[in-house]
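Two quick folds needed for the group meeting slides. Do the first one here.
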Amino acid sequence: MVNPSRRVGVSPLELRLFKPPLEESDDRSEEKMLSRSYTSMGPFSSLGEKLDEATGDWALSYADLSPATPKTPAGISFLATNIGYAAVGLILALRGDILFGSLTEIAGIVSFWYHYAQLNFGVEREEVRLALLTDYFTACTAILTGGVYLFQIGLSNLDMDIFFAGAFSLISLSLCWVWEFGYPYIFLHSLWHLGSAYTGYLVGSYHLDIIAG
């Protein structure tokens, strides 16, 4: 009978296989951060580097969407969800809101650029980081403008549909950082595109009806 207290012999190879590679992962992470280049980002290279330093190399990191590419059905469908921004921007502009309509249009164009580069170039590419940084600017500008509109409208004048749409969009976006890879990310981020475009439409419409109207 084997004594339970007796230590079972383990080979050095087995120890390496089953030992959590903490030090190795840290080394790879540090090497990855040191090798990250910003030279091709033009006038935004300094800003991009400082932004990464301030966020622990997180801000300009992005999901690996392989095996999807801009030419696969999943990649094409993902890029097509940016049409929502184009449609909403056009509708709002035609109704008289040139500012928010134009910002939504621009955000959709830059979002398409970023995700096309993400699908086309893969991970750790300066071309993608430049598009991502630009996407931050345009998306945040549109979102902040929508926030100002909500303040002008007043929460008491809003129906529940705008709250549900906004919550759905934010939940979808948040889950993208939980499943930040491949098809799960594509599905969740597609929901963010569609949900945020619809939320923008509702905000712009309320603003036109209550304030501008």
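Then this one, please, same format:
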Amino acid sequence: MKKITRATLKSFIRNNIDSLYINVKTEFDGMTDGCEDRHDGFVKASTNNEVYMQEHNLGVEGLYLVGQRDYFEAYEDDNFIGIDYYNCCGHGIIAIRKVRSAA
């Protein structure tokens, strides 16, 4: 399997923008000066086209990338397939629903 990079994630988002789901597992909280758990599960991703945030969220609300220290892995479960990301500001999954074949 090819290494997943920021470019891979950008392409995945661009090609699936209308069918993306996001599961934010942890996010940075300034009140505790650390990452806090979130238990929201997968939700339909909404877009955020604020120009100043494009470098960090790639147009997806809830996603936050820091740049040099982002790590990516392939993700797959029974219902979703996508990319697992983590960095010093959080951890989450960007995915699309698997296509179910009619039996």
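Slide caption for protein two: The longest helix spans residues 6-16.
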